[in-house]
């Protein structure tokens, strides 16, 4: 008998041919006279004929591989990567991920399939993990408040620069940059500053060079890129005298031993938590961090977790202040970053929970002592060591520096840093053993044989006595009580059990695409040949990575209709910025400095406007009509009004309202005729893939959300990857990187734009996920996934349309991959709000759809292609029953202020404590559907008071007694 191998696409797509037939019949569709399938008919009704693409065999996407075949090909890539001993440093270090964290967080779908905690009642586990992260960062940096993570160190420095500009009273455009900062950070700062008219002035701060008379901020690397540990407090004081703020990029492991930035007077501390148990992964993803002194809390970009109270007055966590500020403040937002690196922040925080302050300090002392021992051996050999004071990095002057670096690699498999023609940099980390130190010393003429003695535990290596840290940190009990693996495992399990993730049920979030993250796609990211690679390793060590990246770039170019793709942006927001900077670069190269206006429809994603401002553009809003489409008359009027000033139009396709705009080609043509470029926001590519291409409908550049369309998991709010794809004429303006292994990309393109991420390929460590998805789906599977997603959205719209008006649809009455349910009539008739419905859905065992975006008082529902008909029908049933419950309130059967909707969600404690005095039964509250008896998810807290948390801002771990 021949075994039948099920295609991966059949496992990824939740609906089967039979259940799709049932759904299509509900839409009144069946195969037509020309034998065009019913689902193809649906897509032809939804997608405008002017852009519709029939299936074609002429594609660069290979035929779908089985899961076993894809893993075998990935093994082939991995075998062409070489895991050498990393001693390059520059912000990336070898680290040991505790197995209990790797297994129970990184490889656990309860953590990696969760969504951003916008519904905090069902996100208490990851919110606690994030407040642990914030507490860890605030304690180590000696500052008051830390946010819930940044994208990486270099982008965090850039955000620190922008914060200083906002908060400083100085009118000066000058920002001073430490000459001894990481090269990738200086390059990224130059990218970000140029577009905003910020003047970067480099100074040798540790060497005593004076600051300019006027400035708005200064940036210090601490310890310095060269390894030097010095006291920057005088520079910080001078910056304050000049009216500026001080931003310090600090190594958190070093901060367990040396004085904190806060104690030295810093206003802002930034950096990375990579060496807290998160593998280097060829550059990411890693959780950057940012902390600020008191008074700057409301200037923080990104996300901030705070403590509030629930309906019973019990402590509860939620996002504070900045939540989705891009959608509220748009071009006035403090940052375009609307995400974080939650999964990696959880890992880093749990590394601190696992080791505790004594364990972290012990690791740091071992690093410092090994570096000091290496220095002694080098001096003994007659080498010229550059600095006397350092933590983990030793620099050595050498006439044959390049030869030493080459020999280290070729003879010993050790990666050293060629700082310049006459200097070698050597960084020690948690994983560096004595054999590696001995071999490095040999390269400089050290002894052939050496006995390794006991290091001892009292010394701080080569750190200056004046900077040894005196104050305590990580004093909260959470960093002291989980010492055994049993305790750690149970703590992680307990937190995961408080959360709702895709491993529990559907998360029908419109615009966010919470679909399956298959185990096979995830399997390779922890392989050492992918996880343990330094981002600046030589090209010969990363041949497998580069080949896989080249293939993925080519595939993404193919499916989008573009020519070139950069995988460097490590979030959708950074992809937006990179695309707009490419447009800016193109216009400047053509002498069109006056083209600075960016047209953005009123329905656009909030990050669009924020990104345009950060790219140095002026935002002009274009109106939308009553159907949610771009108002063509207003577009033409805005084009006429700004004529020669137009740089770009940003348009999301399908639209943010969940429909395929019929006039998209006319829209893009009008902008091109005016000399502008068209930026197509790729957030909704999952509704277009296989049926149309951005490049064919008039797009010049787009960012793509790999964490949506291409199956990278959300991880509770990060990681993400936001590649930027462009036509050939914009390719040279895509992001480059000063430390990239090679200049060329798929298609032979060379990029010359400035970097937007710290690493050449951004979050390269998770690119195998998207590579696997495309490889296993094939062109046909990708197309089938799109059709299945659109079918599921239209099925929900049809089933729920009689209960809740569907706000927008295309000319043929079809929606795209999501539908917007209008709950405003429900509120008018019954008093029940969109918040009430969202919280009541928790009682039914669901994460709510996207609330009040893009239209207040609505729910935007996106079922994705991964959910089966049973789960979709379960959601439909819940929404129908909630409508009936609201009608019982309207009829007077249940009081306005005491019904299952306004009191939702219901915790187990609220049901069993005391006398039941409500107008509805316990069964109504807990088990509105009988099937929940066996599978009930119990929220750990009742409805959270959002306003209380903003009025009483607490963003660090509360004392244990608060939960008594």
Describe it:
It is a single chain. The protein has 964 residues and is an alpha/beta fold. 37% of the residues lie in helices and 11% in strands. It has 31 helices and 25 strands. Among the domains are: 117-352, Type I PLP-dependent aspartate aminotransferase-like (Major domain) (Aspartate Aminotransferase, domain 2); 562-776, Aspartate Aminotransferase, domain 2 (3-Layer(aba) Sandwich), CATH 3.40.640.10. 60% of the residues are buried. The strands form six sheets. The chain has a seven-stranded mixed β-sheet, with helices on both faces.
Q: What is the secondary structure topology, with strand pairs?
A:
Elements lengths: L7 H5 L4 H10 L11 H9 L20 H13 L5 E2 L12 H8 L2 H4 L11 H18 L3 E2 L6 H15 L6 E5 L4 H14 L2 E5 L13 E6 L10 H9 L3 E6 L17 E5 L15 E5 L11 E6 L5 E6 L4 H5 L12 H39 L3 E2 L7 E5 L3 H12 L1 E2 L1 E4 L2 E5 L6 H10 L41 H13 L21 H4 L5 H4 L11 H18 L3 E3 L5 H18 L7 E5 L4 H9 L3 E5 L9 H11 L3 E7 L11 H10 L3 E6 L18 E4 L19 E3 L1 H4 L35 H34 L18 E4 L1 H7 L3 H10 L6 E2 L6 E4 L7 H22 L17 H5 L9 H5 L5 H4 L10 H6 L13
InterPro entries: GcvP (IPR003437), GDC-P_C (IPR049316), GDC-P_N (IPR049315), GDC_P (IPR020581), PyrdxlP-dep_Trfase (IPR015424), PyrdxlP-dep_Trfase_major (IPR015421), PyrdxlP-dep_Trfase_small (IPR015422)
Pfam families: GcvP2_C, GDC-P
GO molecular function, one term: glycine binding
What's the short version?
InterPro entries: GcvP (IPR003437), GDC-P_C (IPR049316), GDC-P_N (IPR049315), GDC_P (IPR020581), PyrdxlP-dep_Trfase (IPR015424), PyrdxlP-dep_Trfase_major (IPR015421), PyrdxlP-dep_Trfase_small (IPR015422). With 964 residues, the protein is of the alpha/beta class.
